[in-house]
Every structure is written in C-alpha cells, then in structure tokens.
Amino acid sequence: xxxxxxxxxxxxxxxxxxxxxxxxxxxxxxxxxxxxxxxxxxxxxxxxxxxxxxxxxxxxxxxxxxxxxxxxxxxxxxxxxxxxxxxxxxxxxxxxxxxxxxxxxxxxxxxxxxxxxxxxxxxxxxxxxxxxxxxxxxxxxxxxxxxxxxxxxxxxxxxxxxxxxxxxxxxxxxxxxxxxxxxxxxxxxxxxxxxxxxxxxxxxxxxxxxxxxxxxxxxxxxxxxxxxxxxxxxxxxxxxxxxxxxxxxxxxxxxxxxxxxxxxxxxxxxxxxxxxxxxxxxxxxxxxxxxxxxxxxxxxxxxxxxxxxxxxxxxxxxxxxxxxxxxxxxxxxxxxxxxxxxxxxxxxxxxxxxxxxxxxxxxxxxxxxxxxxxxxxxxxxxxxxxxxxxxxxxxxxxxxxxxxxxxxxxxxxxxxxxxxxxxxxxxxxxxxxxxxxxxxxxxxxxxxxxxxxxxxxxxxxxxx
Length: 464
Ligand code: SAH
Ligand code: SF4
Ligand code: F3S
Description:
Layout: E1 2-4, E2 23-28, H1 32-47, E3 51-52, E4 61-66, H2 71-84, E5 93-98, H3 99-104, H4 107-111, E6 115-119, H5 127-135, E7 139-142, E8 163-167, E9 169-170, H6 181-185, E10 189-190, H7 193-205, E11 210-214, H8 228-236, E12 243-247, H9 256-264, E13 271-273, H10 281-286, H11 293-306, E14 311-318, H12 325-338, E15 342-347, H13 367-392, E16 396-404, E17 411-415, E18 420-423, E19 433-441, E20 446-450
Parallel strand pairs: 1-7, 2-3, 2-4, 4-5, 5-6, 6-7, 8-11, 11-12, 13-14, 14-15, 18-20
Antiparallel strand pairs: 9-10, 16-17, 16-19, 17-18, 19-20
Helix pairs in contact: 7-8, 8-9, 12-13
The structure holds S-adenosyl-L-homocysteine, iron/sulfur cluster and FE3-S4 cluster (F3S).
The site of FE3-S4 cluster (F3S) has 13 residues, from helix 1 and helix 6.
C-alpha cells in the first residue's frame, strides 16, 4: 500500500518504538543544508530509540538524503540506491529524503522497489512514525511543505568535531531560471533570532567554537523583527564563539547594515562566498539573478572597502542557454577583475520544470563548446587562486585544526579567510587554534609552520 501523508498529521510522540535499539545509517549528498538536515534526522531518530551507525552494512534503517541541483547529483543517488541493496537485511527499511525526494515524490517508489519512504525536507518530524508504518509493510510519500517547520525542538546529532552547521533560513524566494531549489525547498522562511542564539549557546556548551549560518540567500534573513545584521551581531557575541561564517548570501541582500556588522563583529570571519554565476549582464538577466555585472562589482567593492583582507569565493555556471563567446569572455574577465580566492564551477544542467528548460532549443550550447569553456574557466580561476596564494607565503595566520588530512599524517586546518592549511600532526589536536606561518603552497592549499610552542588548547568537542 502506498500512502501520501502530511508530516504534521503524523506526530510520532505516541508511536511505539521497538526494542532493542534499531540502527539507522544516513548517507548525505548535496549542500551543507542537507548535512544539517541529516544531523537533525539522526537527532530525531536517536530521541526515538534509534542508534546511529556509520556504515550501511546490516543497518535496520538506511536513509539516503539527496540533492537535485544537477542531473549528475540525481544519477549518482540512483546508482547508489541500487548498490545499497547488498547491505540490506530482509527487514531493512530504505528511505529517500531531501531534495530529490521532494522533486520526484512517488516516482522514486516506482523507480526503486526496495524504497519504502520518500520524505521531503519539511517532513522529517514524522520519520519515526513513518518508519513504524514501513515496518508494517506500508510505503509512504511525505512531500508537503510546512512553512512553520524549523525543527526547533529537535536536538541535532552533530558529526563535525569543530564547527556546527546552523540553518537559520529554509527555502528560497528567488527564482533563478536554472534552479530547482525553490521547487525542492519551498518558500523562504527564517527562524526566530532568539532560537538561533539558543542553539549557538548549546553548540558552545558542546565544546564547538565555530558556527556556519545556513540559508539559500542567508543575508535576506528576517524574523519579522531582526535582519541578518542583527543575527550576525547576536551570534557573534555569544560567549565562547570564536568564528562565525555564513553561506550563501545573495549580492542583492548586502545592506550597509550587514556589511557593517561583518566588519565590526570580531568573530565574523573575513570570507564571503558570493555566488556570481556569470560575468555578463545579458546572461545574468536570462538567469534572473536580478543584478548586473556592474552591481556585482559594486557589491564586491563595498565589502572590500569595509573589511580588510576579505577573501572572496564564488559559484559560476558555464553553458547556460544562449551563452555567447562574448558573454563567456565577460565571465572570464570578471574573474580576473575580482581575483576570487576560489570558485565552484558547474556546467549548466537543465532541471525539469525550471524556466531555463523552456528557452528556445537553439539556445542550447553544444557539449563540446561547454567543455572547452569550462576548462578555460577552471584554468583561469586556478591560475588566479595560485597567484593569490603565492603572495600569501610568509604571512602569519591563526588556524583552527579541523581534522586529520587525507594522507593520514598531517592535520588539516583552516584560516579565518578560509584557506586550507596543513600542519604537522604533533603541533596540535583537532579543535585547537594555532598560529602558523604559511611556509609552502601547492597553489591550492598551504603548509603551515607553528610559530608558537604553546597552542591555545580548546576542550575536545563532544559528539554524540
Ligand atoms: N542559493 C545559492 C545557491 C545554491 S545552489 C545561491 O543563490 O547562491 C549552488 C550552486 O549550484 C549555484 O550557485 C549554482 O552555481 C549551481 N547551480 C544551481 N542550479 C544549477 C543548474 N541547473 N546547473 C548547473 N549549476 C547549477
Ligand atoms: Fe537557486 Fe537562485 Fe534561490 Fe540560489 S537564489 S537557491 S540559485 S533560486
Ligand atoms: Fe542540493 Fe537541495 Fe542543497 S538541491 S544543493 S541539497 S538545497
């Protein structure tokens, strides 16, 4: 039986929870918002008697928290759903959550017969009850939006040892013509400022010292009384917080108040991820980004004037419908003009139902042209990034040690301006702040040599 349910109607508080503790594994794709949502789902399920596990093998419940932003994000998930079959016991329940679940709804159940639950981003409150139903052999789709839902009463189970992802806004009211997010996440809504501050205080109590405030256009945050400037000041002033970051802001929502808050609050880091998408005004218009090349540059100039040493990163799309050689050259020249520290670069991927898919077919940029432009863009961005990084050699910076590096020998740390710095394993431990001199660079990451023998110790974060 397949049932479509409203998540709120299924309050799980009176649901029965079987003993012994069933295990749950969640695999996360997509952006930090999804990471934060997975932490909420783990928290919710843990409170209902589930035991989180970090491998799918033999788990009682497997949830795949998905992304729909580009076609390949979804293709990967479909492949992975097939693979996960081999980890299933006869009674394992598999659920698909997140943006692809929201976008496809019951179609997921048709495509993958071993999936019992399809739950969108506003339906996680009902997960324990839905799992109980699935255990009885039922199948559910829960994809209603709930504009009140911020999961205020759910305590996230955090994975990151040193920083906390804090959603402050859900959904998006922009309508960029390429983007599926307004469809998968619904309308924009913000949490109340005191609720965010309370969560940040709890994070500090757990021993974490960095927070990243999340929202699709996070600087348009408003709880009716407070704007994003107020939020930065309030979060930045929480006792014990040493670093505040946020992502992703929209260039149109940088009021003077927000820039002033960023400049004046010492805990707010000198880094902004400022998606530009294209350097061409005509292209930005087709994308419905609502700013021109000149306005983007003006936004950058205002921020750089207010915040010394500001690092800027960005998102860029190549091959959007109708992109001419000239428009692409404008993107390259804007990169040269701004000199971004880094960029996420994407080939345009048509998303079902978005306005871009209704543009004239002759506007489609041939694959070979997209690939050639993409490669040139990557080379340009990496070249500038390398030059910027070489110029930083010799600087002394404070880093926060985040994790063991991939090679297993060094520790990976981050500067306030978001540079990745490798430090010797014996120099510190995860969660420590350390002052280092930047003594080497691969062009992308740095090697840091500690300049004090006495790194300031932070309590080890408690996760779990
Ligand atoms: N809310 C954020 C972006 C979230 S999506 C913002 O407005 O900045 C992250 C990035 O994915 C976008 O900035 C964009 O560069 C890219 N993206 C979104 N939709 C895409 C699509 N259909 N094809 C290719 N890239 C896309
Ligand atoms: Fe998508 Fe645009 Fe909203 Fe960002 S601002 S989530 S790119 S619609
Ligand atoms: Fe992907 Fe949804 Fe984030 S589409 S990028 S997981 S908001």
